[in-house]
Amino acid sequence: MNNPAELVVPRVQAAIATAFGEEFRQTDPVVRPSQFADIQINAAMALAKKAGLPPRDAAAKIVDALNLDGICTGVEISGPGFINLSFDGTWIEELLNAEAAEAASKATAVTPAAAPQRVVVDYSSPNVAKEMHVGHLRTTVVGDSLVKVLEALGDTVIRQNHIGDWGTPFGMLIEHWLEIGEDSPEAALLVDDPSAFYQAARAKFDSSAADADGFATRARLRVVALQGGDEETFAVWQRLVAQSKRYFNAIYSMLGISLTDDHIAGESSYDEHLAQLCQELEERGLARISDGALCTFPDGFSGRDGQPLPLIIRKSDGGYGYGTTDLATIRYRVRELGADRVLYVVGAPQNVHLRMVMATARDAGWLPDTVEAVHVQIGNVLGEDGKILKSRSGAPVKLMALLEEAVDRARAVIDASRPELSDEERAVTARQVGIGAVKYADLSTGHDTEYVFDFDRMLALSGNTGPYVQYAAARIRSILRKAGVLEQFTDGGAGGTVADGTSAAGARAGGPATAIAVVEPAERALALHLLEFDTTLNKVRDALEPHRLCGYLFELAQLFTSFYDQCPVLKAEESVRESRLALCALVLRRLSGGLELLGIETPENM
Ligand code: ARG
Prior knowledge:
Layout: H1 4-7, H2 9-20, E1 31-33, E2 39-41, H3 43-51, H4 55-65, E3 72-78, E4 82-87, H5 89-104, E5 118-122, H6 134-152, E6 156-160, H7 169-180, H8 185-192, H9 194-207, H10 215-227, H11 231-255, H12 274-283, E7 288-290, E8 293-296, E9 311-314, H13 322-335, E10 341-347, H14 351-363, E11 372-378, E12 381-382, H15 399-417, H16 423-444, E13 451-452, H17 455-458, H18 466-482, H19 486-490, H20 505-509, H21 521-530, H22 533-543, H23 547-566, H24 574-597
Parallel strand pairs: 5-6, 5-10, 10-11, 12-13
Antiparallel strand pairs: 1-2, 2-4, 3-4, 7-8, 8-9
Helix pairs in contact: 2-4, 3-4, 5-21, 7-9, 7-10, 7-11, 8-9, 8-11, 13-14, 15-16, 18-23, 18-24, 21-23, 21-24, 22-23, 23-24
This protein binds arginine (ARG).
C-alpha cells in the first residue's frame, strides 16, 4: 500500500487524538481531492461542532498537533476550516519506486485485502435450450471481472453457474428432441440456435394442447417421468443439457470467460432437497398455505394492494418453483460451501425475488448475520430505440452473431489503420479489440444502470472505451519496443500483468531497477494516480463495482497521454530517458493488469 492519501490518515488521526482527546482517535479525517493542494482534510468542521469551537480554530488545533515531517511540504487552512496538504516530492518518488518494485514481483503485485473471505459468486446462469440474451452477457462479463478482482485481492472465490436446467418445459423439450432424432439437423439447433429449438418445441406443444394423446400430453407425462426419476428419461435429459453446455461454452470461449463445466450447479442439483425444505419451513411455522400454495411471507414485502407479498415455495399442484430452488441454493452455499459472502450477479428485475429468498433464509437461520448476501443488480441492455435489445424481427438477438459483428467491425478498422501487420496479427488484434469493446461497455457503466448497446460508441478510440485504454497500452509497448527495452520490462509476452507480472528489469537482472524521478507536473500527476491502484481495487471489492476500475484506467490512459505530450521520452537525455521509460513501463503494467482484471486482453499491436 503506497497511496499517500491513505498513509497520511494515521498521522491525522494521531493529531486529532492529541488535540481533542483519545476518544476521537478513530475519527474519519474525511480526505478529499483539493483544488489547491494534493488533498484536503475536512474533519475539522464536524469536530468543531462537537467541541463547541469555531471550525477554523478546530482546524488550527489539528494542524498544531500534526507531524508531517518528511511527507508533506505544505499545510494550509482554507475556507471554513479545510486543511490542505501538499505531499513532499521526494516522498512521492520513494512511494512510486516502491510501487514499481512491488508491481514487478508477482507475489506482492497487489496488496491483499485486510481480511480475505470465502465468496460464492453466482453469475452468468443462463437457461438450457434458450438463447443467452444480452442480459446474460452482462452478468457473465461483470461476474467474471468481480471474480478476478476478488481473487487478486486474496479472497477464495467459488464460482457457481446456476443454469436453468429443470422444470416443466423439459417435458416438451425432451419429447421434441426424441421425435426429431437426437442426431437430426434440427437437433443441432440446440447448439447453434437454441431459441429456434425451443420455439419449435413450444409450437408443437401449443398446437396439440387439445389432443388427448398428442404431443402436449406426452410432454406432461415426460415431466412426471423426469421428476419421478425414470432412468431412461433422465439419460435423455442429461444428453440434452450436455448439448446446451456446448453452446454456453462456445460463448464463454469467444468471450474469454473463466467459467467451466466444473462451475455448473444448476437448478436440478437442488431438486432432491426441496420436499424436505418445504416440510421444515411448514413445521417451524415459517410457511403457510395461502390459496392452496405453500408460501412464506417475509417481513417488509408487500404488494400493490398493501397485502404481505408471498414467496411461493410449493405450488397448489404440488410442484416446486424458482424460489424453492433458490432457498435450497442459499442454504447449500452457506452450509456446504462455507461462504462468508454470497453474490448474485443477476438482472435487476429479479431483485424482489432474491431479497425475499434472502429474508426467508435469514428467518430460517440458513443465512446467519455473519454471512453477507448481495444482489449485484445488472441493468438492462437496450437497443437504440430505448427498449430491451431485440433483433429487427423482434426475436432475441443471437449473442454469437453480435460478438462476431463486434470483431468484424474492429477488423475493418485495423485493416485500414495497420495494413503493414500480417493477416494473423490483424485477426488477433481485431478479436481482442472487438470483444474488449463489448466487455468494457458492459463494465464501464454502473452495473445497475441501463445502457444503450451501440457499436460505434463502444468501438470509438476516444472516450471511456475499451479501445481507448487498449490503445494507450499498445502505444507504450511501441515506445518500449523502439527503445529496445520491451522484453526487459514485460517478459516479451502479453505485457506485465497483475497475474503474470513476474519480470522487471531489476528483478531479472538481479540489480536495482532504474529509479523513476518525479519532476514535471505531468509526471507527478501520473505518479499520484498510479499510487491509487490498490485503493481502487479494494473499492471495487467492497462496493462490487467494476466500473470504478474502468474509470481508473481511463484516467490513467488520459494522464499518460498528457505526460507523453509534455515530456519527451525517447528523445530525452540518457538519465531522464531511463527514468521515463521505467515510468512508462509501470503505466503499461497497470493498464494491462487492470484490463486483465476486467477480462480484457491487451493487444500487442494496435
Ligand atoms: N437462470 C436465471 C435467468 O436466466 C438466472 C439465475 C440467477 N441465479 C439464481 N440463483 N437465481 O433469469
